[in-house]
Amino acid sequence: MDSVLPIAILSAIIGIVIAFLVFGNYFQKRKAEVESVAKPEIIQTNQKTSKPQQSHKNTSKKSQPKSHSHTTDHKDANKRHHPLDLNTLKGHGDIVTGVCFLPNAQSLATACADGVVRIFKLDDALSKSFKFLRINLPAGGHPIAVAVADETSSVAVACHALFGSSLYMYGEDKPKADADSKQAKLPLPQIKWEQHKVHDKRAILTLVGTKATYGSADGSTIIVSCSEGTDIVLFHGKSGKIVGNVDTNQLKNNMATISPNGRFIAAAAFTADVKVWEIVYSKDGAVKEVSRIMELKGHKSAVTWLCFSPNSEQIITASKDGTIRVWNINVRYHLSEDPKTLKVFPIPLKDASGTTLHYDRLCVSPDGKILATTHGSMMQWLCMETGKVLETAEKAHDGDITDMAWSPSPIPMGDKKVLVLATASVDKKVKLWAAPSLNAS
């Protein structure tokens, strides 16, 4: 018994020593491993932090002001990035789908995908803020276009929903005098008429209104609605009654418009030819019929957009064949006279590889001298006489331009008046642009 105890104690001591040596060796290895992993990380971190610090010391005096200047310039560029850029109408909650000036020129109506039509009062194009009337459309409809309807402050709005397209005409009642103030208050525009399923379940592509003054027309506003199918419907602006129908007999419409005097309708349908109809008015001024009278043949590829000249005697077309054509349609078609091509201009717009691009939209100034064009978010102004580029805005908006319209007459800009072009975009903004000088190059 006495001899067993010392042996057990000795064995325990030897076991502890061996365990100490084993675990000591293990922890030493782990420490070495940790150091070998940690050191490169520390060095890498020091390199990453030390280099920027060194770079910051070397460049702080130069790069920091540049960065600050760039930010400032960027903000300024957003405000006035082009010499023709006058102002931006903000506050829209979604894509702005349509714009149109009312006859008084100082009121601009905008249609927005947020379900609101806004009528801005443009007392001065350089104003820092604009007053506007807010028209909330019926729930469920998505505004896609707005057009002049009748009188001074009436607008027609095209909306699209699952069940089809609808038209709403908003007009203001006559001002009522307040007994206390004895001043006339303008009530908010109210729905005067509405039409549903205008093109069955098809969407409306374009909506245009004009005052009919040709021949025996009584001066009523005619509204032309073009569907994505093959049909075009004419409405009486004040009553909302359908006064005419057109079938383009094409695969699919692209757009349609009416001449400023209410005489002609022209449609582009993704083909090289453009069809033209004439609105015939009866002696009492009402629309009697709409008859097809001519085709514009000459383009070699699809016509992307067209518009009428202010005098309603010419049509300007843009095509994917890389040209713009100006047509004389004031011919004796009943004597089989064909429309004549007056001018052909090459589209002065090319991509990086040199391929000619096409224009998405066209719009002629009310004096007939300037052609405004768009391609995506870019804008160009061309001289109608020569076809030369007057000005270009490479990035007029931060997204594709959805619509544009010229003011029917000059509007105030500071101490003078200028012709103004309004553009709408998917960037939720409407911009106002001054007409370029015809001497620009």
TrEMBL record:
Pfam families (UniProt xref): WD40 (PF00400)
Organism: Solanum lycopersicum (Tomato)
Identification of the protein by name: Anaphase-promoting complex subunit 4 WD40 domain-containing protein
Record key words, sorted: Membrane, Repeat, Transmembrane, Transmembrane helix, WD repeat
Transmembrane helix keyword on record: yes
Chain positions covered by the region annotation Disordered: 43-84
Top-level taxon of origin: Eukaryota
Transmembrane segments: 6-27
SUPFAM superfamilies per the UniProt record, alphabetical: WD40 repeat-like
Polar residues bias locations: 43-57
Compositional bias annotation for Basic residues: 58-69
Each WD repeat, start to end: 89-123, 296-330
